[in-house]
Amino acid sequence: MNSREDLLKHLENNTGVLKNPEIKKAFEKIDRADFIKEEYRIEAYEDYPLPIGHGQTISQPTTVVFMLELLNPQRGDKILDVGSGSGWTTALLSQIVGPGGEVFGVEIVPELIDFGRTNLAKYNFKKSHIINVIEEIGLRKHAPYKRILVSASFEGEIPKELLEQLDIGGIMVAPVLNSIFRVKKLSNGKLEKKEYPGFSFVPFVNQENNKTIKQPR
What is the C-alpha separation between 60 and 168, in angstroms, rounded? Predict the structure, then answer.
C-alpha cells in the first residue's frame, strides 16, 4: 500500500475492523509515516509491525484499530497510553479526545522517549505527554483514567497496580500472552472482562529492573 488512503480502504473494506468514525478521522489526520524510522518509511502504510529500535515495534495498523475500537475513547477523556513507543497511539488518542481531553504516554526506554516526543511534536497537541516512568506500572500521579491502553503483553494477569488506576466506568484494553483483554470497571468496583485471542505482542517490561513482568496466572 502506497498511501494513507490505501491503508484506510484496507482497514475499512478488507479487514473490516475500522468502524468508529472518530477513529477513522484520527487515522486520516495522524500519518503513520511520521512515527517510523527513516529506513522503513517506504513501508509506512503496510499492515504489519515495523521495528523502531531497542527490541520494540510500531504495531500493525489492524491491531491498533481493533484495540481502539474496543477502547472506545471519547472526546474529553483522560487516557493513559502504556508503552507509548513511537508515539503513534498517543497521537491517535490525542486526536480522538480533542482539546478537552488529555493523554499521558508512558515508556521505559530513554531513546524511545526522545523518539516518541519528537514524533508527537509534529502535531500541535497541547495536552499530550510522553513520560519516562521508572519505578511504577502506569502513572498514579494523574489517575484515575477513563481509558487505559496497553501496547505490550503481560505474561499473566493484568497487574493490580494498573487496574487501580482505571476510573469507575472506565475501560482498559491490554494484551495478556496472545490475547487482548477488554476490562471495564463497574460501579461496584468489580471488573468485567472479555478475551479476544489470536494476537502477538512484544512483552511488557518492568520499569524498575528492565525485565519482563511475570504476573501470577
Answer: 30
- Listing DSSP states for 29-88 in one string gives HS-GGGGS-GGGGGGTTSSS-EEEETTEEEPPHHHHHHHHHHH---TT-EEEEES-TTSH
CATH 3.40.50.150 is right for the domain spanning 4-197? yes
Q: What is the pLDDT of residue 152?
A: 85
What three-state secondary structure class fits 192?
Answer: strand
Give the residue numbers annotated as catalytic, written as ranges: 59
- Please give the pLDDT value at position 178: 87
Question: What single DSSP character describes residue 93?
Answer: H
Domain residues of the chain, as ranges? Answer: 4-197
Dist CA 206 CA 32 (whole Å)? 27
Q: What is the pLDDT of residues 11-62, one digit of tens each?
A: 999 999 999 999 999 999 999 999 999 999 999 999 999 999 988 999 999 9
- Taking the CA atoms of the chain, what radius of gyration do you get in angstroms? 16
In this predicted structure, the answer to whether residue 215 has a pLDDT above a threshold of 50 is: no
